[in-house]
Amino acid sequence: MKKQRKIQKQAERKTSKRPRHNSIIHELWRNRALYIMCLPALAWLVVFCYVPMYGAQIAFRKYNARDGITKSPFVGLKNFEFFFKSNDAVRVTGNTLLLNFLCITLTLVLSVSTAILLNEVRKKKLKKIYQTMIFFPYFVSWVVVQAILQALLSDSYGLINSVLEEAGLERIAWYSLGFPWVWIVVICSVWKSLGYNTVIYLARITSIDQSYYEAARIDGASKMQEIIRITLPLMKPTIIIMLLMSIGGVFRADLNMFVAISPTTGASLRYINVIDTYVYGAMRNSMQYGMSAAVGLWQSVMGFALVMFSNWLVRRYESENALF
Asked: Homologous superfamily of 79-321 in CATH?
Protein backbone atom coordinates (compact mmCIF):
# COMPACT_ATOMS: atom_id res chain seq x y z
CA MET A 1 0.00 0.00 0.00
CA LYS A 2 2.82 2.38 0.87
CA LYS A 3 4.49 1.67 -2.47
CA GLN A 4 1.28 2.38 -4.37
CA ARG A 5 0.79 5.67 -2.52
CA LYS A 6 4.37 6.65 -3.31
CA ILE A 7 3.84 5.91 -7.01
CA GLN A 8 0.57 7.90 -6.97
CA LYS A 9 2.24 10.91 -5.36
CA GLN A 10 5.04 10.82 -7.93
CA ALA A 11 2.46 10.76 -10.73
CA GLU A 12 0.64 13.72 -9.20
CA ARG A 13 3.89 15.67 -8.97
CA LYS A 14 4.65 14.98 -12.62
CA THR A 15 1.21 16.13 -13.73
CA SER A 16 1.42 19.27 -11.56
CA LYS A 17 4.81 20.10 -13.11
CA ARG A 18 3.43 19.69 -16.63
CA PRO A 19 3.77 22.99 -18.55
CA ARG A 20 0.57 25.03 -18.69
CA HIS A 21 0.60 25.31 -22.50
CA ASN A 22 0.61 21.51 -22.77
CA SER A 23 -2.55 21.28 -20.64
CA ILE A 24 -4.24 23.94 -22.79
CA ILE A 25 -3.34 22.09 -25.98
CA HIS A 26 -4.58 18.86 -24.45
CA GLU A 27 -7.89 20.51 -23.50
CA LEU A 28 -8.33 21.99 -26.99
CA TRP A 29 -7.61 18.65 -28.66
CA ARG A 30 -9.78 16.61 -26.28
CA ASN A 31 -12.82 18.88 -26.88
CA ARG A 32 -11.95 19.91 -30.43
CA ALA A 33 -15.45 19.19 -31.77
CA LEU A 34 -17.03 21.58 -29.26
CA TYR A 35 -14.49 24.33 -29.92
CA ILE A 36 -14.96 24.00 -33.68
CA MET A 37 -18.71 24.50 -33.22
CA CYS A 38 -17.95 27.64 -31.20
CA LEU A 39 -15.84 29.19 -33.97
CA PRO A 40 -18.73 30.93 -35.85
CA ALA A 41 -19.94 32.58 -32.63
CA LEU A 42 -16.37 33.52 -31.71
CA ALA A 43 -15.80 35.02 -35.17
CA TRP A 44 -19.03 37.03 -34.87
CA LEU A 45 -17.96 38.29 -31.44
CA VAL A 46 -14.53 39.39 -32.68
CA VAL A 47 -15.79 41.06 -35.88
CA PHE A 48 -18.75 42.91 -34.42
CA CYS A 49 -17.68 43.52 -30.80
CA TYR A 50 -13.89 43.79 -30.65
CA VAL A 51 -12.83 45.10 -34.07
CA PRO A 52 -15.13 48.18 -33.74
CA MET A 53 -13.26 49.10 -30.53
CA TYR A 54 -10.63 50.57 -32.86
CA GLY A 55 -13.08 53.40 -33.50
CA ALA A 56 -13.26 54.29 -29.79
CA GLN A 57 -10.42 56.75 -30.38
CA ILE A 58 -12.94 59.01 -32.16
CA ALA A 59 -13.96 60.08 -28.64
CA PHE A 60 -10.57 61.82 -28.31
CA ARG A 61 -10.39 63.32 -31.82
CA LYS A 62 -12.15 66.01 -33.83
CA TYR A 63 -13.32 63.49 -36.38
CA ASN A 64 -14.04 64.30 -39.99
CA ALA A 65 -14.65 61.82 -42.79
CA ARG A 66 -12.11 63.42 -45.12
CA ASP A 67 -9.10 62.78 -42.86
CA GLY A 68 -10.32 59.52 -41.36
CA ILE A 69 -9.89 58.34 -37.80
CA THR A 70 -6.12 58.35 -37.38
CA LYS A 71 -5.49 61.63 -39.23
CA SER A 72 -8.22 63.61 -37.47
CA PRO A 73 -6.74 66.06 -34.93
CA PHE A 74 -6.39 64.85 -31.35
CA VAL A 75 -8.38 67.00 -28.90
CA GLY A 76 -8.06 65.03 -25.65
CA LEU A 77 -11.09 65.26 -23.38
CA LYS A 78 -12.81 68.17 -25.14
CA ASN A 79 -15.46 65.89 -26.62
CA PHE A 80 -16.49 64.92 -23.10
CA GLU A 81 -16.95 68.54 -22.08
CA PHE A 82 -20.05 68.94 -24.27
CA PHE A 83 -22.03 66.53 -22.15
CA PHE A 84 -20.55 66.91 -18.67
CA LYS A 85 -20.57 70.72 -18.73
CA SER A 86 -24.12 70.96 -20.02
CA ASN A 87 -26.96 71.84 -17.65
CA ASP A 88 -28.88 68.76 -18.73
CA ALA A 89 -26.19 66.15 -17.90
CA VAL A 90 -27.44 65.36 -14.39
CA ARG A 91 -31.10 65.31 -15.42
CA VAL A 92 -30.74 63.01 -18.43
CA THR A 93 -28.43 60.69 -16.47
CA GLY A 94 -31.00 60.53 -13.67
CA ASN A 95 -33.77 59.81 -16.21
CA THR A 96 -31.71 56.99 -17.71
CA LEU A 97 -31.00 55.37 -14.34
CA LEU A 98 -34.61 55.72 -13.15
CA LEU A 99 -36.12 54.22 -16.31
CA ASN A 100 -33.64 51.35 -16.37
CA PHE A 101 -34.18 50.63 -12.67
CA LEU A 102 -37.96 50.46 -13.16
CA CYS A 103 -37.64 48.32 -16.29
CA ILE A 104 -35.15 45.87 -14.72
CA THR A 105 -37.16 45.52 -11.50
CA LEU A 106 -40.56 45.06 -13.14
CA THR A 107 -39.18 42.73 -15.82
CA LEU A 108 -37.53 40.55 -13.18
CA VAL A 109 -40.60 40.29 -10.95
CA LEU A 110 -43.09 39.77 -13.78
CA SER A 111 -40.97 37.34 -15.81
CA VAL A 112 -40.19 35.13 -12.80
CA SER A 113 -43.85 35.16 -11.74
CA THR A 114 -45.03 34.41 -15.28
CA ALA A 115 -42.55 31.55 -15.63
CA ILE A 116 -43.76 30.00 -12.37
CA LEU A 117 -47.39 30.34 -13.45
CA LEU A 118 -46.69 28.83 -16.88
CA ASN A 119 -44.94 25.90 -15.24
CA GLU A 120 -48.15 25.12 -13.36
CA VAL A 121 -50.19 24.79 -16.58
CA ARG A 122 -50.63 21.05 -17.12
CA LYS A 123 -52.23 21.01 -20.58
CA LYS A 124 -49.41 21.11 -23.15
CA LYS A 125 -51.44 22.76 -25.92
CA LEU A 126 -52.66 25.48 -23.59
CA LYS A 127 -49.13 25.99 -22.28
CA LYS A 128 -47.78 26.44 -25.83
CA ILE A 129 -50.52 28.94 -26.65
CA TYR A 130 -49.68 31.00 -23.55
CA GLN A 131 -45.95 30.88 -24.31
CA THR A 132 -46.53 32.05 -27.88
CA MET A 133 -48.79 34.90 -26.76
CA ILE A 134 -46.27 36.09 -24.18
CA PHE A 135 -43.25 35.74 -26.48
CA PHE A 136 -44.87 37.31 -29.57
CA PRO A 137 -44.36 40.99 -28.52
CA TYR A 138 -40.59 40.40 -28.53
CA PHE A 139 -40.72 40.21 -32.35
CA VAL A 140 -42.97 43.24 -32.79
CA SER A 141 -41.24 46.30 -34.24
CA TRP A 142 -41.25 49.54 -32.26
CA VAL A 143 -42.95 51.18 -35.23
CA VAL A 144 -45.88 48.79 -34.74
CA VAL A 145 -45.88 49.57 -31.00
CA GLN A 146 -46.04 53.28 -31.86
CA ALA A 147 -49.07 52.63 -34.09
CA ILE A 148 -50.76 50.72 -31.24
CA LEU A 149 -50.06 53.61 -28.85
CA GLN A 150 -51.51 56.07 -31.33
CA ALA A 151 -54.65 53.97 -31.59
CA LEU A 152 -54.95 53.96 -27.78
CA LEU A 153 -53.79 57.46 -26.79
CA SER A 154 -54.59 59.74 -29.73
CA ASP A 155 -56.41 62.93 -28.74
CA SER A 156 -58.91 62.67 -31.60
CA TYR A 157 -59.49 58.96 -32.29
CA GLY A 158 -57.79 57.15 -29.39
CA LEU A 159 -59.66 54.24 -27.85
CA ILE A 160 -59.08 55.38 -24.27
CA ASN A 161 -60.36 58.89 -24.96
CA SER A 162 -63.39 57.48 -26.77
CA VAL A 163 -64.21 55.33 -23.72
CA LEU A 164 -63.75 58.34 -21.41
CA GLU A 165 -66.03 60.44 -23.58
CA GLU A 166 -68.71 57.75 -23.62
CA ALA A 167 -68.49 57.61 -19.82
CA GLY A 168 -69.10 61.36 -19.62
CA LEU A 169 -65.51 62.24 -18.71
CA GLU A 170 -63.15 64.71 -20.34
CA ARG A 171 -60.61 63.61 -22.93
CA ILE A 172 -56.97 63.48 -21.86
CA ALA A 173 -54.20 64.98 -24.00
CA TRP A 174 -51.81 62.08 -23.42
CA TYR A 175 -49.02 63.44 -25.62
CA SER A 176 -48.95 66.68 -23.63
CA LEU A 177 -48.53 65.00 -20.25
CA GLY A 178 -45.25 64.88 -18.34
CA PHE A 179 -44.41 62.25 -15.72
CA PRO A 180 -47.06 59.67 -16.83
CA TRP A 181 -44.91 59.04 -19.89
CA VAL A 182 -42.30 57.46 -17.63
CA TRP A 183 -44.76 54.66 -16.89
CA ILE A 184 -45.93 54.47 -20.51
CA VAL A 185 -42.34 53.92 -21.66
CA VAL A 186 -41.66 51.40 -18.87
CA ILE A 187 -44.84 49.43 -19.63
CA CYS A 188 -43.96 49.24 -23.35
CA SER A 189 -40.40 48.10 -22.58
CA VAL A 190 -41.52 45.45 -20.09
CA TRP A 191 -44.26 44.24 -22.45
CA LYS A 192 -41.68 43.73 -25.22
CA SER A 193 -39.03 41.97 -23.13
CA LEU A 194 -41.27 39.94 -20.84
CA GLY A 195 -41.59 36.91 -23.14
CA TYR A 196 -37.84 36.56 -23.75
CA ASN A 197 -36.98 36.62 -20.03
CA THR A 198 -39.90 34.34 -19.18
CA VAL A 199 -38.62 31.66 -21.56
CA ILE A 200 -35.19 31.73 -19.90
CA TYR A 201 -36.62 31.38 -16.39
CA LEU A 202 -39.11 28.74 -17.52
CA ALA A 203 -36.26 26.68 -18.98
CA ARG A 204 -34.53 26.82 -15.60
CA ILE A 205 -37.69 25.75 -13.75
CA THR A 206 -38.32 22.78 -16.04
CA SER A 207 -34.75 21.55 -15.43
CA ILE A 208 -35.31 21.26 -11.66
CA ASP A 209 -35.35 17.66 -10.42
CA GLN A 210 -38.97 16.68 -9.72
CA SER A 211 -37.91 14.53 -6.78
CA TYR A 212 -37.59 17.72 -4.69
CA TYR A 213 -41.26 18.51 -5.24
CA GLU A 214 -42.33 14.92 -4.60
CA ALA A 215 -40.48 14.90 -1.28
CA ALA A 216 -42.07 18.25 -0.36
CA ARG A 217 -45.56 16.93 -1.15
CA ILE A 218 -44.95 13.88 1.01
CA ASP A 219 -44.02 16.22 3.87
CA GLY A 220 -47.30 18.09 3.34
CA ALA A 221 -45.89 21.26 1.75
CA SER A 222 -48.34 23.58 -0.01
CA LYS A 223 -47.80 24.91 -3.56
CA MET A 224 -46.66 28.28 -2.22
CA GLN A 225 -44.16 26.59 0.09
CA GLU A 226 -42.80 24.59 -2.86
CA ILE A 227 -42.27 27.81 -4.79
CA ILE A 228 -40.62 29.65 -1.88
CA ARG A 229 -38.51 26.75 -0.58
CA ILE A 230 -37.58 24.96 -3.82
CA THR A 231 -38.29 26.88 -7.03
CA LEU A 232 -36.98 30.34 -6.13
CA PRO A 233 -33.76 29.15 -4.38
CA LEU A 234 -32.87 26.92 -7.34
CA MET A 235 -33.63 29.79 -9.75
CA LYS A 236 -31.31 32.15 -7.88
CA PRO A 237 -28.18 31.53 -10.02
CA THR A 238 -30.11 32.27 -13.22
CA ILE A 239 -31.71 35.37 -11.70
CA ILE A 240 -28.33 36.69 -10.57
CA ILE A 241 -26.77 36.14 -14.01
CA MET A 242 -29.67 37.89 -15.74
CA LEU A 243 -29.42 40.79 -13.29
CA LEU A 244 -25.68 41.16 -13.81
CA MET A 245 -26.17 41.24 -17.57
CA SER A 246 -28.93 43.86 -17.21
CA ILE A 247 -26.81 46.04 -14.91
CA GLY A 248 -24.21 46.33 -17.68
CA GLY A 249 -26.68 48.38 -19.75
CA VAL A 250 -28.10 50.50 -16.95
CA PHE A 251 -26.52 53.66 -18.40
CA ARG A 252 -27.94 52.92 -21.85
CA ALA A 253 -31.42 53.13 -23.30
CA ASP A 254 -33.18 51.59 -26.27
CA LEU A 255 -32.88 54.47 -28.74
CA ASN A 256 -35.25 52.80 -31.20
CA MET A 257 -37.97 52.70 -28.56
CA PHE A 258 -37.63 56.35 -27.56
CA VAL A 259 -37.45 57.61 -31.14
CA ALA A 260 -40.50 55.56 -32.13
CA ILE A 261 -42.95 55.97 -29.26
CA SER A 262 -42.02 58.99 -27.15
CA PRO A 263 -43.15 62.56 -27.97
CA THR A 264 -40.48 64.75 -29.53
CA THR A 265 -41.75 67.89 -27.78
CA GLY A 266 -43.77 68.79 -24.72
CA ALA A 267 -43.59 68.32 -20.96
CA SER A 268 -42.66 64.63 -21.22
CA LEU A 269 -39.13 65.42 -22.46
CA ARG A 270 -38.19 66.54 -18.95
CA TYR A 271 -38.81 62.98 -17.70
CA ILE A 272 -37.98 60.68 -20.63
CA ASN A 273 -35.08 62.50 -22.28
CA VAL A 274 -32.27 59.99 -21.65
CA ILE A 275 -28.57 60.04 -22.50
CA ASP A 276 -28.99 58.33 -25.87
CA THR A 277 -31.79 60.61 -27.09
CA TYR A 278 -29.98 63.70 -25.82
CA VAL A 279 -26.79 62.79 -27.67
CA TYR A 280 -28.73 61.72 -30.76
CA GLY A 281 -30.51 65.09 -30.92
CA ALA A 282 -27.28 67.02 -30.36
CA MET A 283 -25.39 65.01 -33.00
CA ARG A 284 -28.22 65.41 -35.52
CA ASN A 285 -28.12 69.17 -35.10
CA SER A 286 -24.34 69.73 -34.99
CA MET A 287 -22.94 66.52 -36.61
CA GLN A 288 -20.30 66.15 -33.88
CA TYR A 289 -19.31 62.48 -34.09
CA GLY A 290 -16.56 62.86 -31.50
CA MET A 291 -19.03 64.02 -28.87
CA SER A 292 -21.33 61.08 -29.59
CA ALA A 293 -18.43 58.62 -29.37
CA ALA A 294 -17.27 60.21 -26.10
CA VAL A 295 -20.63 59.75 -24.40
CA GLY A 296 -20.91 56.21 -25.78
CA LEU A 297 -17.46 55.38 -24.38
CA TRP A 298 -18.42 56.84 -21.00
CA GLN A 299 -21.59 54.71 -20.96
CA SER A 300 -19.59 51.58 -21.76
CA VAL A 301 -16.96 52.27 -19.09
CA MET A 302 -19.63 52.93 -16.44
CA GLY A 303 -21.54 49.80 -17.44
CA PHE A 304 -18.35 47.73 -17.23
CA ALA A 305 -17.54 49.19 -13.81
CA LEU A 306 -21.04 48.39 -12.53
CA VAL A 307 -20.83 44.80 -13.78
CA MET A 308 -17.44 44.32 -12.14
CA PHE A 309 -18.64 45.82 -8.85
CA SER A 310 -21.87 43.80 -8.86
CA ASN A 311 -19.98 40.61 -9.68
CA TRP A 312 -17.54 41.37 -6.84
CA LEU A 313 -20.47 41.69 -4.42
CA VAL A 314 -21.98 38.42 -5.63
CA ARG A 315 -18.61 36.63 -5.43
CA ARG A 316 -18.12 37.89 -1.88
CA TYR A 317 -21.44 36.59 -0.55
CA GLU A 318 -22.48 33.96 -3.14
CA SER A 319 -19.21 32.93 -4.80
CA GLU A 320 -20.74 29.99 -6.68
CA ASN A 321 -23.26 32.30 -8.43
CA ALA A 322 -20.75 34.88 -9.72
CA LEU A 323 -20.15 35.31 -13.44
CA PHE A 324 -16.35 35.09 -13.03
From this structure: MetI-like (1.10.3720.10)
